[in-house]
Amino acid sequence: MITLRPQPLTRERFASYGDVIESFDVDRAAMNAARFERFDDLCGVDMGDGGRVAVSIAKCRVATSLPYRVDMVERHPLGSQAFVPLTPAKMIVVVAPPEQSVEVGDLRAFVTNGRQGINYKRGTWHMPLIAFEAGQEFLIIDRAAGEPNCDEHVLDEPVMLEES
């Protein structure tokens, strides 16, 4: 069985798969009489033709623990998909390039610093969302439309996700 150990998430490492959403080291502007700093345009939201932006919240009902067996990945061929933790929390994501198919050897794992969110590019293969605490909430920004936008792929062999 292949084992994946997550690397720390950085913009450079994740660029092939999507965007890292964080307020660190980006352009900022004052807002509301300079009582706030605003960090603009943190990810490329892609809704494709005929899509509209959907903003949702997901709340974890069952916490995940490591090691964790990954049997399946999914992708959204019609638009991007973003997850941002609403309270500080480590996230682990497993991704593969936005190709027509996915091979186990193409999978990469990343761990956030607890303050980062991610935005998957259209078509990027990824493990479904997991959380390490029940009750953890995530803001989701993705495509809403009448047509299906999720392809699933069962891996030829499972992958074991372990601590980094």
Q: Could you describe the largest sheet, including whether it forms a barrel?
A: 5 strands, antiparallel
Q: Give the DSSP E fraction (strand runs of 2 or more residues).
A: 35-45%
Subunit arrangement of the protein: single chain
**Helix run count:** 1
Per CATH, the class reads: Mainly Beta
Q: Which fold does the CATH topology refer to?
A: Jelly Rolls
Q: In angstroms, what separates the terminal alpha carbons?
A: 17 Å
Q: On the 0-100 scale, what is the average pLDDT?
A: 94
Shape: globular
What is the annotated CATH architecture? Sandwich
Would you identify the regions where 5 or more consecutive residues have pLDDT less than 50?
A: none
Helix content: under 10%
Task: Report the structural category.
Answer: mainly beta
Strand order of the largest sheet: 3-11-8-13-6
The count of β-strands is 14
- The overall number of domains is 1
Q: What is the H level of CATH, i.e. the homologous superfamily?
A: Ureidoglycolate hydrolase
Radius of gyration: 16 Å
The run of helices and strands is: EEHEEEEEEEEEEEE
